[in-house]
Amino acid sequence: MEPAKDSLLLSRIQFVANVSFHILFPTITIALGLVLLFFKLRFNATGEQKWMVAYLFWVKIFALSFAMGVVSGITISFQFGTNWPGFIETVGNVAGPLLAYEIMTAFFLEAVFLGIMLFGASCVKSWVHTTATFLVAFGTTMSTFWIIVLNSWMHTPQGYELIDGVVFATDWWAIIFNPSMPYRFVHMLLASGLTVAFLIAGISALRLLWGDQAENVKSTLRVGIVLAAGLIPLQILAGDFHDLNTLEHQPAKIAAMEGNWETGPNIPLVLFAIPDEEARENKFEIAIPNGASLILKHKPSGVIPSLNDFIAEDGTKMHPRVAPVFFSFRIMVGTGMAMLALSWFGLFLLRRYGAGQMPRLPLYAFAAMSFSGWIATLAGWYTTEIGRQPWLVHGVLSTKDAVSDVPAGMVLGTLIGYLVVYAALIFAYMAVIPYLARKATHGEELSPRGYPRSGEAEVTLMQPGE
Amino acid sequence: METFGDPAIWLPWTFAALMGLSILIYVVLDGFDLGVGLLMPLANDAEKDRLVASIGPFWDANETWLVLAIGLLLVAFPPAHGIILTSLYLPVFLMLIGLILRGVSFEFRAKAPRSQKAGWNFAFFSGSLLASMSQGFMSGMYVMGLTWTFNHVVFALLTAVFLTVGYSFIGAAWLIAKTDGALQKRAIGWAKGGIWGLILGIGAISLATPFVSTRIFDKWFSFPEILYLAPFPVLSGILMVYLFWKIGRLQKDQNRLIWDPFAAETALFTLAFAGMAYSFYPYVVPEQITIYDAASAPESLFIILIGTLFVLPTILGYTVLSYYIFCGKATELRYD
Q1: Cα separation, A218 vs A215, whole angstroms
Q2: What is the pLDDT of residues A281-294, one digit of tens each?
Q3: pLDDT under 50 in chain A at which residues?
Q4: Every domain of chain A and the residues it spans
Q5: Closest CA to B273 of B11, B10, B27
Q6: Does domain B9-299 have CATH number 1.20.1630?
Q7: What's the number of CA atoms in the CB half-sphere (13 Å) around residue A169?
Q8: ipTM rounded to 2 decimals
Q9: Which of B 79-98 lie inside 8 A of A, CB atoms?
Q10: B126-182: per-residue pLDDT in tens?
Q11: Minimal Cα distance from A438: which residue of B?
C-alpha cells in the first residue's frame, strides 16, 4: 500500500465526484436558458398567456439548477489547487488564461443578469427582462465554450512549447481552436439540448398523466418532443464525427471504446462483451462483422489501431483501463438509441393524437426518461475522460504527476463528506421538480393574472427568494 | 522600487493588486449575504423571508468574486496557488460544503414542500456559519504563515469567531439599509451585537501581523515609515468610534443616513486590507514565495491582462446596474 497511490486514486475519485455532480446542472441550464428565451419570445410575439406560464414554471427549475451549478462550480475551481497542484504548475500558462476568460466573460455575466432575469421583471421594462434572459443564456454558452476549449486542449494539445517541463503558450489561436474543440463543443451543446428536451417532455408528460390539461403543459410537451426528435439525429452525427476525430488524435481511447485488442482490417463492431484486461481479449462477445472498420474507416478492410499497440517496451500500459471506457460508451450510445426511438415515436403520436390525447403508455415512457440526458451525458464524459488516461494532458502531463501530496486519509474523509452532501442534494433536486409539477398541476398555478406584453411591466413575475 | 518598466515586475504586481481587489470586494459583498445568513435564527418566520429577499438578486454574483480571486491566484501565481490550497485543504473543504449548503437551500427553502422549510432555513444558516468560520480560520492561518502549530490554530480559531461575528455585523448593516419598520429596528440591535466581532477581528489580525515576522514589524515601526502609516490606525479608530456612535444614533432615529454603517464598515475593511497588503508585500505565500517568484510567464499574464482591462470595467458596470435596479427596500414575500 503505497500512500501516494492511494492519494492518487482517491483524488481521482474525488474529482470525478465533483465534476460529475457539477456537470448535471450546467447540462440543464445551458439549453434551458435558450428554451426560456424561446418561451419569452413566443409570449412577446403572440401574447398567449400559456408561454408566460410555461416560462414561470421552468424559470424556477432554471434558478434551482443554476444555484446547484454555481456552488458546485466553485468547488471545482478549488479542486485544482487542493488536489491537483501539478496541473496548474505544468500547464498553468495555458489553462490559466482560459479559466480566467471563462470567469470574466461568462461567470459574471450570467450571475449578474440572473438576478434581473429572476427578480427584475417588476422593476425593469419587458425588453430589458428579455435581454437579461438572453444574456444569461449567452453567458452559460460562453462558459461552456471556454471550459470545453480547456478540456479539449487537454485531449489534443496544440500551440505550446515545453521549457524545463513547463508549458508555454506559443499560439493562442491554435490553443483555442485545437483539433477536438469544435466536435466536443457541438457534442456538449447538443447533449444539453437533449437533456433539457427530455426533461421538459418528461415533466410535461407527468403532468398530463396527473390530468393536467393546461395549454402550457401541452405546449411544453410539444416543444420537448419536437426538440428531442430534431436534436437526436444531429447528436448521432456529431458523435460520429467526434469519433473520427478521436481516432486521429487519441487512437488508444477508440481502441478501448471498441474493445479492440488486435490491430488489423475487418474489425467487428462489438455490441456487447466483457473486456478482460489480464487475458487481453473480450469474453462473451457479440459483434457485427466488419462493423467497426466500416464506421471508422468507411470500408471493411479499414485497419484500426488496437490496445496492443499501446504497450510500452517495458510492458507499461499506455492505454486507459478498458472496461470503464467500453461500458460507458455503450451506455451512452444505448441511451441515445432509446432517445431516438422514443422521440420519433412521440413525434408520430403528436401528429396522430395531439398533445392532449396522447396514450398513457408513451407518456409513462417520457416521464421515465426525464433524466435520461444525465445518464447519457455522464456516460459520455466518462468515456472521453477515462479514455484520456494515463494522461492528464495528452502526451504532456500524466495524471499521477499532478496529484498533491495531501495524505490519503484526508482525501478520503473529504471525499465521503462530498459524497454525502451530493447524494442528499441530488435526491432533493430530483424530488423537488416533480413536487413543483404536482403543485402546478393542482391549481396552484403561478399568478393567473395577465402579463403585459410590452412597455413597463407592472407585475412581479417572481419574488426574490421564491 | 525595482524597475517598473520590466513586465516581469509590473505584471505580477498588477495581478497581485487585482487579486487583492477581488478578495476585498468579495469580503464586503459576500460578507453581507453570509452575514444575513448568520442572522437567520434571530428572525421570525416572516422576517426570514424578507432577509432572504434582501440578498436574493445579489448573492450569486457576490460569490463570483471568490471564484475570480481564486482564479487570479491560479492563473497568476500557480505555485502559490498549490501551496496555499493544499495547506488549507480541510478549511477549504469545509468552506465549500458551507457555500454549497447555503447556496442551494436558498432555492430549496422556497421550492420544497413547506414542511421542509425549517430544515432548509437551518441549512442556510449552518452553511453560512461554516463558510464564515472557515474563511476566518483561513485568514488567521494565512497571517500565521500557513503552518499548523497549536498556537497558530488557536489564533486562527479566534479569527474565525471574530470574522463570523463581523460578517453578522455587515449583514445587519445591509439589513438596516434594505429593510424598514420593525425589522430594521431589530437589525440595528443585531448590528450593535455584532460590532465587537468586527473590531476584534480587524484588531487581532492587524496587531498580530507585525509580530509574526521581524520583517513586517520593521516595515511598520521604523522611522519615517511610521509617520506615513499613522493614518491607517488613526482612520480605522475614527471609523470604529463613528460606527459605535452611528448605531446608537440609529436606535433613536432609524431613518437617517441608513447606508452609513455599511459604508463605514466597507471603508474599515478597505483600510485593514490595504494594511495587510502592505505588510505581506512582496510575498504571496507569507515569508516563503514572492509574487515575482511565483508569477506565470509574462506572455500568459499579458493576454489575461488585456482581457481584464476590457472586462473588469464591464463587470463593475453591470454589477452597479444590478444594485441600481434592486436599490429599493426588500419587500415582503408573497406566495401565490
Answers
A1: 5
A2: 887 878 888 878 88
A3: 1-3, 445-466
A4: 3-263+305-441
A5: B27
A6: yes
A7: 26
A8: 0.79
A9: 79, 81-86, 89-90, 92-93, 96-97
A10: 999 999 999 989 888 888 888 888 888 888 888 888 888 888 888 888 888 888 777
A11: B113
